[in-house]
Write a structure and sequence with these properties.
With 490 residues, the chain is an alpha/beta fold. Helices cover 38% and strands 21% of the residues. The protein contains 14 helices and 22 strands. The strands form six sheets. It has a seven-stranded mixed β-sheet, with helices on both faces. Strands 9-8-7-10-11-21 form a six-stranded mixed β-sheet, with helices on both faces. GO terms for molecular function: glutarate-semialdehyde dehydrogenase (NADP+) activity; succinate-semialdehyde dehydrogenase (NADP+) activity. Keywords: Oxidoreductase. Pfam families: Aldedh.
Length: 490
């Protein structure tokens, strides 16, 4: 049960397809559990290929009328959706905390963050401009116009169940596209609640379709979208391994893709950094959502001259973080999403300790709180042979590496197949220019640990994916350019 909701109807136990709330075609369901205690929150449809195909059919039927709407008409619906999200902040936050585990205060922040994307793209809807090209021959007029790509399949992760789906659906609808969506199996309830609010805001039947599925069934459902030539774009946030599979399997119908994939973010503290600010930055970047974000620093590099002082300051702050279930108002770190996540965190820490790392704080499971809790951890004397350097931990663990030279630390920071985010702290303006240019990442935080914004283009390079979300560049990913050449004018 999810208690204390003002609107209990926000907990949906059906798929939204063509404006109707429906069970799965097979009638099968699966349980959504609270990661803090394992309690079942709801049983919802376990969708398969037939449900995915029904969602595509509904979107295909709705597309012509939606793309024909004036941009300001689509914008008004998005603004209404934004207002409903904001008005239901508390219920959405409680729902999210229950199924994802993040503390309630953090969940409220995510509601505001996700709503910001809806408001941003409502404003951007009326600013999709083409071009009149300079004439190259007499009697010809050349123009470039931007049009919606069509049906978009959105596949979203569990770590930000509201923000990630909002920042995919909002630009798609603003551009005139229609959407079929599958949220992560661990956290589908928030997405279904958002779909209900979109329906109430006036999103027409079939323009937004959301189906839920367990891990195994979801693979089958997504495969149907990959094979269906009517689906023209895939937008996915998740692991690099799955992103590569989507890119491969969508190639048969040459879909447009936006892939926001895994990361291995470095966080560099130079000798001239404001250490208090740098500690604040690590706390903001690393321990948000219990370290379960793709832009979390996975490797913290600290100049040798300030290493011991910084380590002591960080360990003191991290050791004071309150770990508890989301229902506890004082919680700062909640449970990890599931047992697999805890096993990976423990494996990374144990591997590091075996190779000489020392635990300054944390470094253990908090079994007294439940199966999915792990203590916020700071490790010193980390080295390049530890798993942190090659795998994304996705948990509240900050390993500290020592360095002496700027060129050395940049080479080390870039020595990864990933390139999503990177952070560094310094007060040297010339160094800011050098290091910003040298780091291989799509998102750079300079003296700042919280970098996300609806106005900024978010995305990675290398094996962290391609495409951008947020900003006007994010809207472009849902548009196709058509060149029109009109002759006979002379």
């Amino acid at each position: 049960m999810i208690e204390l909701l003002t609107r209990s109807d926000l907990v949906r136990d059906a798929n939204l397809i063509g404006g109707r709330w429906l069970p799965s075609a097979s009638g099968r369901t699966f349980a959504v559990a609270n990661p803090a205690n394992g309690d079942t929150l709801a049983r919802i449809p376990d969708s398969h290929a037939a449900d995915a195909r029904a969602a595509t059919d509904a979107a295909h039927a709705a597309f012509p009328a939606w793309r024909a709407r004036l941009p300001r008409e689509r914008a008004e619906i998005l603004r209404c959706w934004h207002a409903l999200i904001v008005a239901n902040t508390e219920d959405l936050a409680r729902l999210m905390s229950s199924e994802q585990g993040k503390p309630l205060a953090e969940a409220r922040g995510e509601v505001a963050y996700g709503a910001g994307y809806v408001a941003w793209f409502a404003d951007e809807a009326a600013h999709v401009h083409g071009d009149i090209l300079p004439p190259q021959q007499r009697g010809k007029r050349m123009t470039a116009v931007k049009e919606p790509v069509g049906i978009v399949a959105a596949i979203t992760p569990w770590n930000f169940p509201l923000a990630m789906i909002a920042r995919k659906i909002a630009p798609a609808l603003a551009a005139g596209c229609v959407v079929v969506a599958k949220p992560a199996e661990d956290t589908p309830l928030t997405a279904l609640a958002l779909a209900l609010l979109a329906q109430e805001a006036g999103v027409p039947d079939g323009v937004l379709n959301v189906i839920a599925a367990s891990r195994e069934s979801g693979i089958e459902a997504v495969a149907d979208w990959l094979e269906d030539s009517r689906v023209r774009k895939i937008t996915f946030t998740g692991s690099t391994a799955v992103g590569k599979l989507l890119a491969r399997d969508s190639a048969r119908t040459l879909k447009k893709l936006s892939l926001e994939l895994g990361g291995n973010a470095p966080f560099i503290v130079f000798e001239d950094a404001d250490l208090s600010a740098a500690v604040d930055g690590v706390i903001a970047a690393k321990f948000r959502n219990g370290g379960q974000t793709c832009v979390c620093p996975n490797r913290v590099y600290v100049h040798a001259s300030v290493y011991d002082r910084f380590a002591s300051m960080l360990a003191e702050r991290v050791g004071a973080l309150k770990v508890a279930a989301a229902a506890d108002p004082s919680a700062q770190i909640g449970p990890m999403i599931n047992a697999r996540a805890v096993e990976k965190i423990a494996r990374h820490v144990d591997h590091a300790v075996e190779r000489g790392a020392k635990v300054l704080t944390g470094g253990r499971r908090l079994s007294e709180l439940g199966d999915n809790f792990y203590a916020p951890t700071v490790l010193v004397d980390a080295s390049s042979d530890m798993l942190f350097c090659n795998e994304e931990t996705f948990g509240p663990v900050a390993p500290l590496f020592s360095f002496d030279d700027e060129a050395e630390v940049i080479r080390t920071a870039n020595d990864t197949p990933y390139g999503l985010a990177a952070y560094f702290y310094t007060q040297d303006m010339r160094r800011i220019e050098r290091v910003s240019a040298a780091l291989e990442a799509g998102v750079i935080g300079v003296n700042e640990g919280a970098v996300s914004s609806e106005a900024a283009p978010f995305g990675g390079i290398k094996e962290s994916g391609y495409g951008r979300e947020g900003s006007r560049y994010g809207l472009d990913d849902y548009l196709a350019i058509k060149y029109v050449c009109q002759g006979g004018l002379a």
